[in-house]
Design brief:
- This protein has four helices and no strands.
- Helix 2 packs antiparallel against helix 3 and helix 3 packs antiparallel against helix 4.
- The longest helix has about 35 residues.
- The relative contact order is 0.14.
């Protein structure tokens, strides 16, 4: 029984500490909750394969290149819009602080670089 009370006290103390950190605006408390997820190339692999299949139906090399470029640009634009929405949602939920905005921007840039690199391969 004593061990159970001790565990409950520990949980209560941790919960209280977390609440205090959030309420007082501890600068890095928002980073604990940053859950923005940016699409990876694997999320889009099927769409890229479909794009390449459709481009394969073109009759000339120039038409194929145009088809691939158009599809790639559409996917890239969609990726950017979705990433911007994810960032704005995080900022609404956790407060628009310069620290959080910078953290999310770094995550987005890293995710985009990985996505672009995989797309180029």
């Amino acid at each position: 029984m004593k061990a159970r009370i001790s565990s409950l006290r520990r949980i209560a103390v941790l919960w209280s500490l977390l609440t205090i950190l959030i309420v007082t605006g501890f600068p890095y408390a928002t980073n604990l909750f940053s859950e923005a997820r940016f699409r990876t190339f694997n999320d889009d692999r099927g769409r890229v394969e479909g794009l390449l299949d459709r481009a394969g139906e073109e009759t000339t090399l120039q038409e194929w290149e145009d088809s691939v470029r158009t599809g790639r640009d559409a996917l890239r634009g969609e990726w950017e819009r979705e990433a911007d929405r994810a960032i704005e949602e995080e900022l609404r939920e956790h407060g628009d602080t310069p620290e959080l905005r910078n953290e999310l921007t770094v995550k987005r840039d890293s995710a985009r670089a990985s996505w672009e690199s995989a797309l180029a391969d």
